[in-house]
Amino acid sequence: MGNHLVIDSSKCVGCGQCVQVCIRDNLAVSDGKVHETGGPCFDCGQCEAVCPKDAIRLVRYEGREPEEYDQSEKVIEYGDMVEFLNRRRSCRLFVGERLDEDEVAKLFEAVRNTPTAMNSMGVEYVLLTDRMPDFLRHIARILEPERARFPRIDQFCSMEDPGRLGRHPLIWDATQAIMAFSEVPADSVIAMGRIEMAAYTMGLGGFYSLWIQKADEVDHEALMDFFPDVPRSKRMNCVFVIGHPKTRYRRTVPRDDAVVHRY
Ligand SMILES: Cc1cc2nc3c(=O)[nH]c(=O)nc-3n(C[C@H](O)[C@H](O)[C@H](O)COP(=O)(O)O)c2cc1C
C-alpha cells in the first residue's frame, strides 16, 4: 500500500525510527520490515533522512541521491552564528553591478531546503532587474490611495517618474529586488530570511521593503497583472531589495532586549 516511497527491504532492520518521525501515519513495521500504510504522505522525506540503514527513497525524487552529512560535527557554532546575526545591517546603498548568475544560483540554492507548511514547497520567486522601473511605475498607481496615510508613499507617488532610479524613496539606490510569493505568508518570510542570510555570507546586502509589499495588500489583483507567470492564489508576502553593498558598517549598535513573556 502506498506509493510514495521505495523501501529497500534488504537494508531495512525494522527499527521503526521512520515510523516515529512520520506525521502522516504512512509507515508501519511488520515482520521486522517497514512498509507504507497508504497514509497521506506529503513527501517530506523525514523517513529517508532518519533511516540509519539508508533504506528509503522518495519516489518523487528517484534518481536523485541524498547527501550524507557528518554526524560528529556541528556546522556552525552558536557564538559564530550570533555574531553573524548581530553584525547584519540593512544595506540601502549599492555599487552599480548587478548580481551575476553564480550569485543568483547560490541565493536560490539557500532556499531549497526551507521548511514550508504541509511541505507545499510552494514559494515562487521573482528576481526583478530590467523591469524595475516599470514595476515601480506599476505600484505607484496601486499605492496612490495610500498617499494621505503614509508620507513615504506620498513622496513616491509625487515623483514625476516613479520609475526613475537613484536615491529612490522606496528602493534608495538599488536596482534589483527579490519577491517571494506563497499561499501561506510565513513560507515566504522564512524563505526570504534564508536568502538574506546567504546574501550576507556572499558579501551581498539588502533590506526588506514594507512599501513594495504594501502594493499586494492594497490591490493584489492589480499587482499580479505585472507577474503573469505567478499564480494569483499566491500573494507577495516578502520583498528583499538586494545588491552589492557600497556601505561598510563598522560596529554593532545597541538594541532593545527581546521581550519574552512566560506563561
Ligand atoms: C518587514 C520589514 C520591512 C522593512 N521595510 C523597509 C522599507 O520599506 N524601507 C527601508 O529602507 N527599510 C525597510 N526595512 C528595514 C528596517 O528599517 C531596518 O531593519 C531597521 O531600521 C533596523 O535596521 P537594521 O536592519 O540595519 O538593523 C524593513 C525591515 C523589515 C523587517
Which structural class best describes the helix and strand composition?
Answer: alpha+beta
- CATH homologous superfamily classification of the largest domain: NADH Oxidase
DSSP strand count:
9
User: Main beta sheet: strand number and arrangement?
Assistant: 5 strands, antiparallel
Q: What ligand molecules are bound, each kind once? A: flavin mononucleotide
Number of folding domains? Answer: 2
The backbone outline, from C-alpha atoms, is elongated
User: What is the CATH C-level name of the largest domain?
Assistant: Alpha Beta
- The CATH topology annotation of the largest domain reads as NADH Oxidase
Which regions contain 5 or more consecutive residues with pLDDT less than 50? none
The fraction of residues assigned to DSSP E strands is: 15-25%
Whole-angstrom Rg: 23 Å
Mean of all residue-level pLDDT scores: 96
| Sequence of secondary-structure elements | EHEEHEHEHEHHEHEHHE
Count of helical segments?
A: 9
CATH-derived architecture of the largest domain: 3-Layer(aba) Sandwich
| Quaternary structure state of the chains depicted | single chain
Helix content: 25-40%
Distance between the termini: 44 Å
Question: What brief labels describe this structure?
Answer:
263 residues, alpha+beta, Alpha-Beta Plaits, NADH Oxidase, 2 domains, five-stranded antiparallel beta sheet, 9 helices, binds flavin mononucleotide
Brief synopsis:
With 263 residues, this protein is an alpha+beta fold. The chain has 2 domains: 5-61, Alpha-Beta Plaits; 78-245, NADH Oxidase. Helix content is 30%, strand content 16%.
